[in-house]
Amino acid sequence: MARMMNVPAPAIVILGTGALDTARRIQACYPGAQVHGLQGRVEADIAYAELSVHLRELYARGTPLVVLCAAGIVIRCIAPLLSNKGAEPPVLAVAEDGSAVVPLLGGLAGVNVMAREIAEALDVTPAITTSGELRFGTCVLNPPDGYALSSLEQGKRFVSDLLGGESTRVEGDAPWLDDAQLPRSDSARLAIRITPAAWDGRTDELLIHPKTVVAATGVVDGSIVERVRLALDAHRLAPLSLAALLAPVEHMSNAALADAAIVLGVPLRFSSVAASDAEPERLLETAMRMPYEALHGETDVALALTRAPVDPASVGHARGRLTVVGLGPGDASLMTPAVRSALSAATDILGYETYVKMAGPFRADQQVHGTDNREEMQRARHAFELASIGRTVAVVSSGDPGVFAMAAAVLEALETSNNAQWAAVELDIQPGVSAAMATAAQAGAPLGHDFCMLSLSDNLKPWGIIEKRLRHAAEADLAMAFYNPVSRARPWQLDKALDIIREFRSASTRVVLGRDIGRPGAALTHTTLGELRAESVDMRTMVIVGSSLTRSYSLHGNREWTYTPRWYK
Ligand code: SAH
Q1: SS3 letters for 114-134?
Q2: In what helix (H) or strand (E) does residue 168 lie, and over which residues does it extend?
Q3: Does the beta carbon of 405 sit less than 6 angstroms from any atom of ligand 1?
Q4: With bands split at pLDDT 50, 70 and 90, how would you rate the model's confidence at 88?
């Protein structure tokens, strides 16, 4: 059986060089698949630091996993996520030498199909344990994309009847069953029926609905779900045969529509018709790219019924989404789950090369657009161009996207464009752990009282403004976090800034330097304003200058802490 549509390429995960050969043979079966190797032990396509963390991350993103190590290790790594009944990607353990292929999880996501494919490539027999699968060579309860099983309960009963010795007819178009070793007989009592029609109460059938119905609505209010259900009902169509909800493009940012699509469990698509021409039939005519039969409901909803399942991506276009995400300082554990899921949902990822790399690995179906750091406005406009044609775009920043980063550039690009299509994009900004927060936490709590964040870069603001703000902040006795303290093009600015602060604060003022915090080679330094030299600071450093009350200590030879008390005297 062919692999199902839209299944992302698997991650092939290995722990050492001994598995590399087998991994490459498996990789050859799956275009876009990458081999993930344990850092320092084996060179592969993608490096990871810790097996369990990495597997859990990939699993949570829905990435199929082929792990070349003991099944027990894989089970223990994934176990904490198993009570959470979400979509379950296929998970397989494969022996390093390729002698065993064990499907572990993802029965309804095609794990056995993958086990057969991999076993064939390795010339072994897969360890399939699913009884229906063993008998019929396919999981009858797992129809491919574009089809939905009417009822799992009914399905289980049906399969156990088959296992009990009954045979079945197949009524309707089920190309994926052609190669299955089903006990078929035209006179069988049981039938597998493929139809968009709703269940008519018969219990001797396995009912599978092809997603062959698109519902178009011109009216957008709280009654959409009800009206779509009435229209389906009027034509005796099963709700599960619905493939997409279609609406006029002028309502792209309408919340009732978005909610309705969620309740109906289908993608929301838009038809580019003029506002005056938003009759539901017109929407279908404009958006459908395949022949269909038009069915009118008496409910301001029109239905299109097609012969084969509809790929929703081929109906009109989606509402584009643009999410500006903060990756945190670097360490994957400091990235929020919301950012992680925005990255996993993205069709396109934009950002400075280094940060895009930090945000990965990405699937083969995700497009990565890395650019030079300085092209921020251009990148922001590019993001809107992609999102306004229906793509799901993530723009990445390190730390927090609102702190000297992409979120402001994106909002400025939108405002200055005054573009209606860009404005209709679903724009969302997801925060991250900023470098000042990450550095402060490592050092203790130097920002434990009033503080300010300043960028010392005079690329986008005159140096005079920076001096003025430094003076005021120093005079106000605020603790300060300096971003962009120096760069090759700005060699003298930090010394000048420190001179200004030294006018207001004593040489014993506490200073914390964090370099590459949350990244490999991280370094933290506790020092003082008097000892601080510009040479110990570079563009990857966060400089935190304490207030007059910031203090440091190291108790009984333990690590040094720097903090600013919560009180003031
Ligand atoms: N949006 C980012 C800041 C971008 S400005 C954030 O919220 O963190 C870039 C500056 O941030 C660098 O020059 C450096 O001063 C600081 N920085 C970013 N990442 C850092 C890290 N991992 N460790 C120390 N400083 C960092």
Answers
A1: HHHHHHHHHCCCCCCCCHHHH
A2: strand 168-171
A3: yes
A4: confident
**Are 102 and 164 members of one domain?**
no
Residue 404 in contact with ligand 1 by CB distance below 6 A: yes
Cα–Cα nearest to 501, from 438, 544, 552? 544
For residue 332, give both structure tokens.
């994957």
Please write the tens of the pLDDT for every residue from 200-255: 888 899 999 999 999 999 888 899 999 999 999 999 999 999 999 999 988 988 99
What's the 1 CA to ligand 1 centre distance in angstroms?
A: 50
pLDDT tens digits for range 100-114: 999 999 877 888 889
Instruction: Say yes or no: CB of residue 390 within 6 Å of ligand 1.
Output: no
Looking at 157, 177, 209, which one is the last position of a domain?
Answer: 209
Q: pTM of the prediction?
A: 0.69
CA atoms of 274 and 533, how far apart (whole Å): 64
The phi and psi torsions of 291 (rounded to 5 degrees) equal -65, 150
For residue 255, the domain's CATH number is 3.30.420.180
Q: What are phi and psi of 93, to 5 degrees?
A: -105, 135
Establish whether residue 400 lines the binding site of ligand 1, counting it when its CB lies within 6 angstroms of any ligand atom: yes
Of the pLDDT bands very low, low, confident and very high (cuts 50, 70, 90), residue 156 is confident
Query: Pick from 129, 155, 176: which residue ends a domain?
Result: 129
Which atom of ligand 1 is found nearest the CA of 522?
23
| 286 shares a domain with 175 | no
Cα–ligand 1 centroid distance for 405 (angstroms): 10
- For a ligand 1 pocket test, name from 541, 543, 544, 545 the mutation site with the most ligand atoms within 8 angstroms of its C-beta: 541
For position 241, what pLDDT does the model report? 97
Cα of 516 vs centre of ligand 1, distance in Å, is: 8
The DSSP annotation for 255-271 comes to HHHHHHHHHHTS-EEEE
Sheet of strand 213-217: strand arrangement: 293-296, 301-305, 213-217, 242-248, 268-271, 317-318
User: Does the pLDDT value for residue 189 go beyond 80?
Assistant: yes
